[in-house]
Design a protein that fits this description.
The protein has 457 residues and is an alpha+beta fold. Helices cover 42% and strands 16% of the residues. The strands form 2 sheets. Strands 1-2-6-3-5-4 form a 6-stranded mixed beta sheet, with helices on both faces. A 5-stranded mixed beta sheet has the order 7-11-8-10-9.
Length: 457
């Protein structure tokens, strides 16, 4: 069959390019260490964690930066929305509440003032938590804080913003099945997380249930101290921040919150292959593969992170460079209280691509990578991660996420030492533990695809 042509043409012995690729990584062979090696230590000593009138605060002061970023994280997210409420409730609450001014400040003036100060005030929802955030220059902090906290304490829930947002969400949902790439990810989420707290998906019927009164009720239930973590990074002292909190959001009710237990979905423990129908003929197949991955704070997190880096490089090289089966095959993951790895690619040669991916899985499960190869490339990885964490906003994100997802802010920042210290045995263990039970979702012309192959790992 045409789907298997490229695979059948592959020689029994790995091509020279593959051999060169392995040599470049110094992979496979007896573990050795040349000379002494001391990984640099990533020590963060200027983070403070404290409580202000029942509000959990994480703060990192930086007197050198002219910008302050603050994020009010709200525990729960979409996964914790009660069954009798639309699952889109938090999405609406976070977006509409930051777009319509406040009860004390008209929408037009609110927007004009925010723009003139260069301040950004935003709301985002997520699977495990949601967030209201702002960033501003130090000189505009007092006014920006006043506007930000007025949104929290006296939201306006502007009817025009609500109706406009509702229309845009419905338009997006109704057009979801038009784009095959977006639809493949939506279908993968729906299938892999069926029956799981992450598995409730937005639907037009769900959004149609949204009303301003429902949104107001949901937002009120969110704004209790038991659910809040405030993460602040920038040029501000602990005393100043404490005074700001006590004069504003400390007036929020204590409330209560019992975290829901979120473990891996049932489908993470067995392979799966699914071919959802699509309304039109496609020139290629859209492939999404999910599998279980460790979350930040898990002992397997850094071994898996290094494995994913190797595995992703192999998959790209073999599918894209060597065989030109797909333009941009990618291996990534989505982190949360429970995390999943994700393989994505588009190709009409599904069987051939899956054979290559499984060959790479077998390689990492049965071969030990040299310690020198494991360390190579970590410096570049670290550089990119440190650069990503340079802004006050991103540091505030990392600190809050670490507290919510792992219970400890010390897990916020990338550790060069931990990644460089991954051992060959840990890499093999991670490959055998996580590169398995792949759940594949394929959109397109699925006639003739070898389903037994998909289910073999």
């Amino acid at each position: 069959m045409i789907r298997s042509t490229y695979y059948l043409l592959r020689p029994a012995v790995k091509p020279l390019l593959f051999v060169a690729f392995l040599l470049a990584f110094s992979a496979c062979g007896t573990t050795h260490t040349s000379g002494s090696y001391t990984a640099p230590t990533n020590v963060v000593s200027d983070v403070q964690e404290f409580d202000v009138s029942g509000i959990h605060v994480i703060m990192r002061q930086s007197a050198e930066t002219p910008v302050v970023s603050a994020i009010l994280f709200i525990r729960g997210g979409d996964a914790a929305i009660p069954p009798d409420e639309p699952v889109s409730a938090e999405y609406f609450a976070m977006k509409v509440v930051t777009a319509g001014g406040t009860q004390n400040i008209g929408k037009a003036y609110f927007r004009k003032k925010i723009v003139s100060m260069g301040t950004g005030i935003n709301g985002e929802n997520g699977r495990d938590y949601s967030a209201l955030s702002f960033k501003c220059t130090r000189e505009n902090f007092d006014t920006s804080w006043a506007y930000f906290t007025d949104v929290i304490l006296h939201p306006s829930f502007d009817s025009t913003e609500f109706e406009n947002f509702k229309k845009s969400v419905l338009l997006g949902l109704n057009s979801r099945a038009i784009d095959a790439e977006s639809y493949s990810t939506y279908a993968a989420d729906s299938i892999y997380y069926a029956g799981h707290p992450y598995g409730r998906m937005y639907t037009p019927e769900d959004v149609q249930r949204e009303t301003i009164s429902l949104m107001q009720m949901h937002f009120k239930n969110l704004m209790v101290k038991a659910r809040l973590v405030l993460s602040v990074v920038g040029n501000i002292s602990r005393k100043e921040l404490t005074d700001k909190i006590e004069s504003t959001i400390a007036s929020l009710p204590e409330g209560s919150y019992t975290p829901i237990k979120i473990g891996p979905p049932a489908k993470a423990f067995s392979p799966g292959a699914y071919f959802p129908p699509f309304d039109r003929k496609l020139p290629t197949d859209y492939i999404v593969g999910y599998y279980l991955a460790p979350s930040k704070g898990d002992p397997d997190y850094y071994p898996y992170l290094r494995l994913r880096n190797f595995f992703g490089g192999f998959v790209f090289n073999h599918i894209r460079v060597q065989h030109n089966l797909a333009y941009a095959p990618n291996v990534d993951d989505r982190e949360g209280q429970t995390s999943n790895g994700m393989i994505t690619l588009q190709t009409p040669y599904v069987d051939s691509a899956i054979h290559i991916i499984y060959d790479d899985v077998d390689f990492f499960q049965h071969n030990r990578i040299r310690e020198s190869a494991i360390r190579e490339g970590v410096a570049g990885w670290a550089t990119r991660n440190y650069m990503n964490a340079e802004t006050t906003e991103q540091q505030a994100v990392y600190l809050g996420q670490a507290v919510l997802e792992t219970g400890d802010w010390h897990n916020a920042f990338f550790s060069y030492e931990k990644l460089a210290s991954v051992t060959p045995d840990e890499l093999v263990t991670a490959a055998n533990k996580y590169l398995r039970n792949f759940n594949w979702v394929i959109i397109g012309d699925t006639a003739g695809i070898d389903k037994s192959l998909l289910l073999s790992r």
